[in-house]
Design brief:
Length: 88
């Protein structure tokens, strides 16, 4: 169970908006006062590829766990990194 599960009922009962920088989609389930702020994999991976390129790293190793979000992130990052910089 993720940490937000204890905060969400309090937010809903108090009708107090909460904004979470969390990736888990359940953060906003069943609470009309919960707002999730999490960049898409395309936006975040493009920013990381730019940062790697700005630091003049042409080749890198990319390590992630195998879950849906990180696998899609890896795919998007590879595409952006190859456009701006080099190889993985």
């Amino acid at each position: 169970m993720f940490a937000c599960s204890s905060v969400n009922p309090l937010s809903k009962a108090a009708k107090l908006p909460i904004v979470g920088g969390v990736g888990h989609a359940d953060f906003v389930d069943h609470n009309p006062y919960a707002f999730r702020f999490w960049a898409s994999v395309d936006i975040e991976s493009a920013a990381l590829a730019k940062a790697v390129n700005d630091n003049k790293h042409k080749s890198i190793a990319l390590l992630t766990t195998e879950d849906d979000w990180l696998l899609s992130y890896s795919t998007a990052f590879k595409r952006h990194h190859q456009k701006v910089s080099g190889t993985i």
